[in-house]
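Consider the tokenized backbone below.
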């Protein structure tokens, strides 16, 4: 799974919502973490209700908004006395959970 373009057909006058889906390997490279670390973060985030894209084989794919979310979690968890679990809960409270969708390609 390399870059896949998905047109959400939710275009406004000012913004094009075409999204790019990247593999877990590409996402881990973008975040600068090993793939097992990204997998662990994704599992913890999913336990809080976020659903990441999965292909027919069950492999996760990440949209750029997912990568931004994980990056914010990583940054917050680097704050003294903030655990990864606390960071996940805090960041997820700030995002619109209505956008959590599963898309199977």
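A designed sequence for it:
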């Amino acid at each position: 799974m390399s870059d896949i373009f998905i047109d959400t057909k939710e275009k406004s006058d000012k913004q094009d919502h075409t999204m790019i889906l990247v593999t877990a390997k590409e996402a881990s490279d973008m975040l600068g973490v090993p793939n097992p670390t990204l997998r662990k973060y994704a599992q913890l985030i999913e336990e809080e209700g976020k659903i990441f894209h999965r292909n027919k084989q069950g492999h996760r794919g990440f949209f750029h908004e997912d990568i931004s979310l994980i990056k914010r979690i990583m940054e917050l968890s680097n704050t003294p006395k903030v655990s990864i679990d606390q960071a996940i809960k805090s960041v997820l409270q700030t995002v619109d959970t209505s956008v959590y969708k599963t898309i199977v390609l």
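The domain at 4-99 is CATH 1.10.1660.10 (Multidrug-efflux Transporter Regulator; Chain: A; Domain 2).
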